[in-house]
């Protein structure tokens, strides 16, 4: 039986473990977090990724955890409503697409009969023709037939196996921050949004949630600041939103107390190859599309499915399996990465005039002739990218 070590217990890593086990492999998942990360933010699952969930028998269970979001409301600096929008249209979702919290999705994907090493990480890889010797932070060393990095934008596996020169991080000129805030700062199943030139703040509370999530988007600071530790992230966020109106000061104060504050530059990963010998990459570690694409979760689900199927088809020839995975996934990745720049243009506007024009158009939209066609045109590029792959049979 082929032993595969997967670094990362997020969407891509958990889905890959599920499918490798399905194909007769013996996966192990190592995750630096001390326990499963059941928090996070809301994510969309569309197109081919929904087919993957259906083939796992999980589509119904995932839909049962739908966020139930109803509206997006745009507010000025005094909290007055500028415009409102249906939540599905705001998220670019077509019929059948589903929006869930990331923690709910990863919990459903996690296979109970797969070994998990929480609170541990990979510190060294020593690969040869027959396998990969892995050294862990806890100090032990084990040998695996294959290692797959599903450990995100700043992948440790990618750095150890491929070296710093093998990846191009394509910055999109913006930062994103997400954290948990008190429920009272949000409305039930409503996304509150406050746009200002060069920055946007949002806060929402999903159906039945005991707390809310705040989202901060802003033009990247000069020098593309690496915020580093939690205190550094708080300082960058406070500086980026100094003087902002509405309830932004309250949200910043809540973010300062949030232990789960995430802040990073929005970037894409571009690599000439996603494998090196017996080590491969999947999800954000290989081809991050950035949160601006709205497709990171779907890329992780589809990539995990395609990689597991390709390795199974290759039957002990990992180089052939990795090559087949890459051939099938490349066009899909390219199509979904292309969404990010387009989406960012509407997420963070550059001037007060652009904000006024956008909100005026949103107010007019329900009254315009041919509204349904216009809505369809908005969602069409996302739908097209989400279905830009033919999945192999599950077998």
Automatic annotation (TrEMBL):
- Location of the FAD-binding domain: 2-335
Per the record's keyword annotation, is Transmembrane helix included, yes or no? no
**Keyword Oxidoreductase, does the record have it?**
yes
Keywords (alphabetical) are: Monooxygenase, Oxidoreductase
Gene3D superfamilies, sorted: D-Amino Acid Oxidase, subunit A, domain 2, FAD/NAD(P)-binding domain
Give the transmembrane region(s): none
| Pfam families per the UniProt record, alphabetical | FAD_binding_3
Q: Name one GO molecular function term.
A: FAD binding
The highest taxon in the source lineage is Bacteria
What protein does this entry describe?
FAD-dependent monooxygenase
Report the source organism: Micromonospora robiginosa
């Amino acid at each position: 039986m082929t032993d595969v070590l997967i670094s990362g217990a997020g969407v891509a890593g958990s889905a890959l473990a599920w499918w490798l086990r399905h194909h007769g492999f013996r996966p192990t998942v190592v995750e630096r977090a001390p326990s499963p990360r059941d928090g996070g933010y809301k994510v969309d699952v569309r197109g081919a990724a929904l087919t993957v969930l259906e083939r796992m028998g999980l589509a119904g269970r995932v839909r049962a955890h739908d966020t139930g979001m109803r509206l997006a409301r745009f507010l000025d600096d005094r909290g007055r409503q500028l415009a409102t929008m249906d939540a599905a249209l705001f998220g670019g979702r077509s019929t059948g697409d589903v929006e869930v919290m990331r923690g709910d999705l990863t919990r459903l994907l996690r296979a109970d009969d797969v070994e998990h090493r929480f609170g541990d990480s990979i510190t060294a890889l020593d690969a040869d023709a027959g396998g990969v010797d892995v050294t862990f932070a806890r100090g032990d060393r084990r040998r695996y037939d294959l290692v797959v990095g599903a450990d995100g934008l700043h992948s440790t596996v990618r750095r150890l196996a491929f070296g710093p020169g093998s990846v191009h991080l394509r910055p999109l000129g913006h930062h994103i921050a997400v954290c948990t805030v008190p429920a009272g700062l949000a409305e039930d199943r409503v996304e509150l949004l406050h746009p200002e030139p060069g920055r946007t703040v949002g806060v929402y509370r999903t159906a039945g949630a005991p707390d809310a999530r705040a989202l901060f988007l802003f033009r990247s600071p000069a020098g593309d600041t690496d915020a580093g530790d939690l205190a550094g992230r708080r300082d960058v966020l406070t500086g980026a939103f100094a003087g902002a109106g509405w309830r932004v000061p309250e949200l910043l104060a809540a973010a300062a107390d949030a232990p789960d504050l995430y802040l990073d530059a929005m970037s894409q990963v571009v690599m000439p190859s996603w494998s090196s010998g017996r080590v491969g990459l999947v999800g954000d570690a290989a081809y991050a599309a950035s949160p601006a694409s709205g497709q990171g979760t779907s890329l992780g689900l589809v990539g995990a499915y395609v990689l597991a199927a390709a390795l199974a088809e290759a039957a002990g020839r990992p180089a052939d399996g990795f090559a087949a995975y890459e051939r099938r996934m490349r066009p899909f990745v390219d199509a979904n990465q292309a969404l990010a720049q387009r989406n960012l243009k509407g997420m963070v506007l550059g001037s007060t005039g652009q904000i006024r024009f956008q909100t005026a158009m949103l107010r007019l939209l329900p009254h315009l002739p041919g509204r349904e066609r216009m809505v369809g045109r908005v969602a069409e590029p996302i739908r097209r990218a989400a279905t830009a792959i033919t999945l192999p049979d599950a077998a």
